[in-house]
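Hi Y.,

Following your request, here is the sequence exactly as I used it, all 415 residues.
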Amino acid sequence: MATPHQTGPFYGPGGLWKKKKNRNEDPAPEQSPYTGDEKPDLEQVSDASPTRSPSRKREAPPLVRDLSPEERAHLEKILVAKIDLRLLPMLILMYLMNYLDRNNIAAARLAGLEDELGLTGTQYLTAVSILFVGYIMMQVPSNLFLNKIGKPALYLPTVMIVWGVISAATAAAETFGGLIAIRFFLGFVEAAYFPGCLFFLSSWYTRKELGFRTAVLYSGSLMSGAFSGLITAGITGGMDGKRGLRAWRWLFIIEGVITIVIAFLAYLVLPNFPRTTGWLTENERQLAIWRLDEDIGEDDWVGSQSQTFWHGMKLAFTDIKMWVLMVLVFCFVASGTVTNLFPTVVATLGYGNIQSLLLTVPPYVLGVITTFANSWHADKTGERYFHITLPLYFAVAAFIIAAVTTKTAPRPPAK
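Below is the corresponding structure, written out as C-alpha cells. Let me know if you'd prefer a different format.
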C-alpha cells in the first residue's frame, strides 16, 4: 500500500482515505454530519448541548473513523502545521501592533510628548491609565458580539483599522484633554483584539496545543516592546523637527499607518472557523472539527442560536477557575504597567534618550525566549500550576530588587 506521504486527502482525491475504505469489510457508512456548510444536528455534535439525548453517542465522521492511529497522527500533524502557518504569523503581527500602539506613549514621552503638551504632575500617568478604562468596558461585550456574528476574519481586521486610525490621530493632540479622549477610545477599540484572539485560537486548537500557541501570540506584545525602542530611537534621531513636527508626533503617525496596512492584509489571510472556512479541503475540515469535538466534547462555533449570550455568561461566572485566573491576571497586568515607565526609568541611570530607548530592547528579547520555553514545556508535560506560578515568583523577586537596591550589578549606571 502507498504510504501517507505518497497519497491521501492532503495530496489528492481518493488516496489514503479511499484505500482505507476499500479495505473495510463493513457496509458503507452513513453521510458524515460534518460535510459542507449545513448546520449539524447539535445532538450529534456536543455533549454540552441542552437538547442532546444521553443515549446518543458521538461518532467520528467516516473519513476519520477509517484511519489507523498512525495515519491519523500523521495527517493531524500536517493539518496543525497548515493551521499554524495560516493563523499564527498574522495574529502575532496584529498583536504586535496592538501592543505597540497602546504602549508607544512611553517612548513618546522621551521623544518630547510631555514637554510639548505641557503635561504636569500626574497628567502623563492619567493618560496612560485612562486607556484601561475603555479596555475593561469593551472586552466582554466584544467577545459576545464576535460569538454572535461568527466572523473573526472580518471582525478582527476591522477593529484593527479603527484603532490604527485612532492611534495615528494621537499625533494631532494639542492639549491634555485631547490626549485623554484619544487614549480612552484607543483602549475601547483595542480591547476587542486579545480576548477575540484567544477565543479564535480555542476554535482551532485542542487543549494540549493551545498553551504554546497562546504564548506564541503573546510574544507579539513582548516583541512590540523591543521594536518600540528601536523605532523610536530611529525616529528621534532622524525625524525630529521634520515638516515642523516633533519626533513623538511622527512616531504615532508612522505606527498608525503601518497598523492600517497590516489590517487590510489580514482580510486576505485570516480564516473564520473550521466549519465555515474555505481553504481547507473537505477531509481536512472533518478532521479539524472532530479534533475539537473529541478533545472537549464540542466543536468550533456552530451558530448563535446554540451559543447564546446568557449561556456563555453562565458558564463563565460559574467556573471557579475563571475567578482565580482573573485575580492572577489583574495582579499581573497591574504590576506590568511599569513598562509604561520603562524608558524613563532606564534614562534615570544616566544614559541619553536614544541609548535609553535601545537599552529597553534586551529584556523583551529575553522575555520572548523564556515565554516560548515555559509554554512549550507546559504543553509537553501537561502540568499547568507551576508553569503559571514559578515565573510569578521570579517576577516578585525582580520587583523587590529593582525597588530596594542601587547597587551596580542589578542596576548598572552609565559610565
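The first helix runs from residue 15 to 23.

Thanks again,
Q.
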